[in-house]
Write a structure and sequence with these properties.
Elements lengths: L6 E7 L18 H10 L4 E5 L2 E2 L11 H9 L4 E5 L11 E2 L1 E5 L4 E8 L6 E3 L2 E3 L4 E10 L2 E9 L15 H12 L5 E6 L6 H9 L2 E3 L15 E6 L2 E9 L8 E8 L2
Parallel strand pairs: 1-2, 11-12
Antiparallel strand pairs: 1-16, 2-6, 3-5, 4-6, 7-10, 8-9, 10-11, 12-14, 13-14, 15-16
């Protein structure tokens, strides 16, 4: 039970509804019902999701987005916003698309393309270059106060034998959004895909934002803290939790907040 004046946020990379299987992690059948049950169990006021949909062959994007469409029906008492990245035939068969759900109405939506550099990598014997990533944002009003919400999913440079410290452009674009909204309560969530997260935390701290936690692992495949909830000094976290779940290869991260000023 949340105390009066507080609100709860869930950050979750849902891996397009594919649950975790210890024996065959890449071959478990999609079970969106398990994803929905996990999300509902947190009773969050704000739900921030990455990898909502599954890329189709040749980078095609299903319209309307089937998982988001079902989730809108399941969470009918929430307002919501979804955005695909720009279509790209190079897109690999993984998760794409960002969504946010809010118990209070959303407004002032934006969808920002985050270009990826042409870093070559091998994918089953073929040379590939990465596709662009995405940031979405919207404003809502909680307890009479406007709050800016940002949600992103950055390129996993560590999977390409590179680093976002070498290729900082996506992180800088996110930082620009943070600085633009620094004069109001702001939350940034996402799967930042930064294996050595200290530099990310310092970069956003220099812009006036802190992460709720940086110690507990949030990913099953490697011992990394990839998922974060950043907040500025208009807000104060009153608690947080990393909850292991079999509904994805990422754990669920929640935090409760109150207004600090």
């Amino acid at each position: 039970m949340k105390a009066p004046g507080r609100f709860k946020l869930l950050q979750f990379n849902m891996q397009y509804g594919q649950p975790w299987d210890d024996a065959y992690p890449d071959h478990a059948p999609i079970d969106l019902g398990k994803t929905i049950t996990e999300i509902r169990s947190h009773d969050a006021d704000l739900i921030m999701l990455q990898e909502v949909e599954h890329t189709l062959p040749n980078g095609a994007q299903a319209e309307p987005p089937p998982h988001y469409t079902r989730m809108k029906a399941e969470f009918a008492d929430y307002d919501s916003y979804f955005c695909y990245p720009k279509p790209d035939p190079r897109e690999l068969p993984f998760g794409i698309g960002l969504a946010m759900f809010s118990k209070t109405p959303l407004r002032e939506h934006i969808c920002v393309n985050l270009p990826s550099p042409p870093v070559e990598f091998d994918f089953f014997g073929e040379k590939k270059t990465p596709t662009d990533r995405l940031l979405i944002a919207a404003t809502t009003t909680i307890n009479g106060r406007a709050v800016r919400l940002l949600n992103t999913h950055l390129l996993a440079f560590f999977m390409l034998k590179s680093s976002s410290e070498t290729h900082l452009d996506q992180r800088k674009l996110v930082e620009e959004q943070l600085r633009q909204t620094a004069k109001m309560p702001t939350l940034l969530t996402g799967d930042f895909n930064v294996s050595k997260h200290e530099s990310l935390i310092q970069q956003f701290a220099d812009a006036g934002y802190r992460t709720v936690q940086a110690k507990e692992i949030t990913w099953r495949r490697r011992p990394y803290v990839l998922d974060h909830i950043f907040y500025n000094d208009w807000l104060r976290p009153t608690g947080w939790e990393v909850r292991p779940t079999m509904a994805s290869d990422h754990h669920a991260l929640t935090a409760e907040f109150e207004f600090a000023r």
